[in-house]
C-alpha cells in the first residue's frame, strides 16, 4: 500500500492560560494521499484551522502541540529541527490563509511581496528573474491584467482578486501539500467556482495533496474526494465525499439538516442538539 503524503496520528494542541488549559485539537488522526482532496468541515472553533497550523508547526506559546505521528512524505515533522522546518514551509507545504486582507502586507505592493517570497526561497534568484516568475504566477491563477495587479497594493484588490494573489504566492513554488483555509469564503458563486477550478488544476496537474478547510458542506461534498467532520477538536466522522448524505454521526446529520433548501417549504431551520459526549476527550 502506498504511503500517504501526510500522516497524522493523535495530534493535540493545548493552550495553557491563566484560567486553565484550552484543548483546541484533541486526538486528530488523518491521512492525505498524493493528488487527493480532503475536506475538513465543522463549526467555527472546532479545530479546523488550528489543525492546519499545527501541520506547519506554527503553534506558538502558550500553545503546546504533541502527536504520536506527524509525518510528511516520510519525514517526521515533530522531530525536524526548526531550520529544516522553515525550509519545508512554502516550498513543499503551503497554506492559503482565510482572509487576504489580513494575510497580505498592506504597505507593500503585490509584486514586491511575490518577489520577496521567491527570493527568500532562492537567494540566488535575480530581481529580474523573480519579477518574471511573479508575473507568471499571477497569470497562472487566471489574473488577466497581471502587470496591473503586480503594481497594486492589497487594499486596491477585490476579495476574489486578493484570494487569487494568495493562492499564486503559495503555489508558485510547487508545494506537494496545500492547506487551503476557507479559500472561497465571502466570495460570490462565480468567483468561488474560478478559485476551485484553479485548485483543481493544481491537484490534477501536479499531483498535489489538498487539505480544504470550509464551513460549506455542499461545496466540500462536490469538490473533495473525502471529508473529515470535526467537532470540539475531534474528527467525529470521516467518509467519502459522495457518501456525505449517508453520514451516520448525529453531529454530521445535524449539520446537513441545517442547510436550507430552496425547493422545500419555508419553516424554522432545525436546531442542532449537541450531546456532551461528543466533546469528551477519549484519552
The CATH architecture of the domain at 37-46 and 80-261: 3-Layer(aba) Sandwich
CATH class of the domain at 37-46 and 80-261: Alpha Beta
Residue ranges: pLDDT <50 for 5 or more in a row? none
Mean pLDDT over all positions: 88
Number of strands: 11
Tally of helical runs: 10
Strand adjacency order, main sheet: 7-8-9-3-10-11
CATH superfamily of the domain at 37-46 and 80-261: P-loop containing nucleotide triphosphate hydrolases
Rg, nearest Å = 20 Å
Named CATH topology of the domain at 37-46 and 80-261: Rossmann fold
Q: Please indicate the percent range of residues in DSSP E strands (runs of 2 or more).
A: 15-25%
Class per helix and strand makeup: alpha/beta
Helix-strand topology string:
EEEHEEEHEHHHHHEHEHEEH
Structure summary:
By secondary structure, the protein is of the alpha/beta class.
Give keywords:
34% helix, 6-stranded mixed sheet, 10 helices, 283 residues, single chain, alpha/beta, globular, 5-stranded antiparallel sheet, Rossmann fold
Task: Write up this protein.
The chain is α/β, with parallel strands linked by helices. The protein has a domain at 37-46 and 80-261: P-loop containing nucleotide triphosphate hydrolases (Rossmann fold). It has ten helices and eleven strands. The protein has helices at residues 48-55, 82-88, 100-103, 110-121, 127-140, 146-151, 159-171, 189-206, 217-223, 250-257, and strands at 6-17, 20-32, 37-41, 63-66, 69-72, 75-76, 93-96, 177-181, 209-214, 226-231, 234-240. The strands form two sheets. A six-stranded mixed sheet has the order 7-8-9-3-10-11, with helices on both faces. Strands 1, 2, 4, 5 and 6 form a five-stranded antiparallel sheet that branches. The two termini are 29 Å apart.
Amino acid at each position: 500500500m502506498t504511503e500517504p503524503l501526510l500522516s497524522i496520528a493523535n495530534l493535540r494542541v493545548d493552550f495553557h492560560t491563566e484560567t486553565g488549559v484550552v484543548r483546541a485539537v484533541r486526538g486528530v488522526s488523518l491521512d492525505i494521499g498524493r493528488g487527493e482532496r480532503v475536506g475538513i468541515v465543522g463549526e467555527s472553533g472546532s479545530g479546523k484551522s488550528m489543525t492546519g497550523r499545527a501541520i506547519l508547526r506554527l503553534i506558538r506559546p502558550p500553545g503546546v502541540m504533541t502527536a504520536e505521528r506527524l509525518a510528511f512524505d516520510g519525514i517526521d515533522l515533530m522531530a525536524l529541527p526548526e531550520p529544516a522546518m522553515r525550509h519545508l514551509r512554502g516550498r513543499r507545504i503551503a497554506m492559503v490563509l482565510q482572509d487576504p486582507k489580513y494575510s497580505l502586507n498592506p504597505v507593500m505592493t503585490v509584486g514586491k511581496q511575490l518577489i520577496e517570497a521567491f527570493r527568500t526561497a532562492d537567494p540566488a534568484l535575480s530581481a529580474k528573474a523573480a519579477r518574471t516568475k511573479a508575473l507568471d504566477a499571477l497569470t497562472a491563477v487566471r489574473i488577466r491584467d497581471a502587470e496591473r495587479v503586480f503594481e497594486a497594493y492589497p487594499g486596491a484588490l477585490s476579495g476574489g482578486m486578493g484570494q487569487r494573489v494568495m493562492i499564486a504566492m503559495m503555489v508558485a513554488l510547487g508545494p506537494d501539500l496545500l492547506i487551503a483555509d476557507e479559500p472561497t469564503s465571502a466570495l460570490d458563486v462565480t468567483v468561488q467556482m474560478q478559485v476551485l477550478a484553479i485548485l483543481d488544476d493544481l491537484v490534477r496537474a501536479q499531483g498535489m495533496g489538498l487539505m480544504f478547510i470550509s464551513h460549506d458542506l455542499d461545496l466540500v461534498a462536490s469538490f473533495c474526494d473525502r471529508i473529515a467532520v470535526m467537532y470540539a477538536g475531534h474528527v467525529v466522522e470521516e467518509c467519502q465525499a459522495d457518501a456525505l448524505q449517508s453520514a451516520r454521526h448525529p453531529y454530521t446529520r445535524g449539520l446537513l439538516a441545517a442547510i436550507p433548501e430552496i425547493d422545500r417549504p419555508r419553516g424554522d431551520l432545525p436546531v442542532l442538539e449537541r450531546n456532551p459526549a461528543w466533546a469528551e476527550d477519549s484519552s
